[in-house]
């Protein structure tokens, strides 16, 4: 059996590693000549960590991950703590730690695990054709690749998605812009072992520890699409949007490097239930493009990879049957994650400001129990419980 994997990002690399683990021949084709991860870092929650453990990267992910022992929300003006609690009850409940990691380092870990030299770069898929026994991908350089199945992990702008669904899908602007990057840990801004978030005005400023004595930071601001802002205006833009915010926020803005700070308009895609067409399966963002508001985009792709490989390994009624079982296992799960993230996005970013203000008030009474229970529910929906 040979699997063609379209895309060498998180989802594609995990799928290739998972299939290789079961002795399935794989060929990975990536559109760009060099992968440059979108976003500075990613929070890998325990469901994702368990997938990486399962795929043989238990020690490697621990070396890359930051130690996030506490979680805290702070008032945006004075920086006063609204709530602070240990993450240990979450870890005890689900049986694994969360690990914030730098995206570039995660990507390198995945490519090294699979075999970087085995990935063919500069191969952008243009069309897919299948018959009763095989599937062929054609690339923009005129070349093609044929296998027994094709895994489309070609991202939120997926070319293969339209082939699978039979129609185009529109990306939905979630209503806010995210700036993100990495800075050296400064405990006058936030503790080194804590996920710290300043909230107010429908905006947020968040810091998570990653390895190498660094914070992953992000700023969220509800804004119109298409503003003329880029790296040349980053610091001035953030100072303007966060005027009057607490001193640690101002200190963070002063310390960021505009040249390595990303500005992203956040989108998602309405969930759909069809992830498979014959011998072709969607995986990761191609099948469930989500906002980052519950931190499950990358984790869901890792889950996809594990489930897909297991369906192919554990079922003997043919490839198309195994892929339909993959779809059955994943469609409701990923729909739920997309909609949970969208709901959290709207509350956090002031879609209805009265609802957001009530959330701020609730945070002041929060013991951590409710927040952690919500996280547990999401995490325990994964395939490795």
From TrEMBL:
Enzyme class: oxidoreductase
Superkingdom of source: Bacteria
GO biological process: purine nucleobase metabolic process; urate catabolic process
Names of required cofactors: FAD
Keyword entries, A-Z: FAD, Flavoprotein, Monooxygenase, NAD, Oxidoreductase, Purine metabolism
Flavoprotein in keyword set: yes
GO MF term list: FAD binding; FAD-dependent urate hydroxylase activity; urate oxidase activity
Coiled coil regions, renumbered to chain: none
InterPro entries: FAD-bd, FAD-dep_Monooxygenase_BioMet, FAD/NAD-bd_sf, HpxO
Catalytic activity: urate + NADH + O2 + H(+) = 5-hydroxyisourate + NAD(+) + H2O
FAD-binding domain location: 2-338
Signal peptide: none
Record-linked Pfam families: FAD_binding_3 (PF01494)
Pathway as given in its UniProt record: Purine metabolism; urate degradation
EC number(s) on file: 1.14.13.113
Family: Belongs to the FAD-dependent urate hydroxylase family.
Protein name, UniProt field: FAD-dependent urate hydroxylase
Gene name of this polypeptide: hpxO
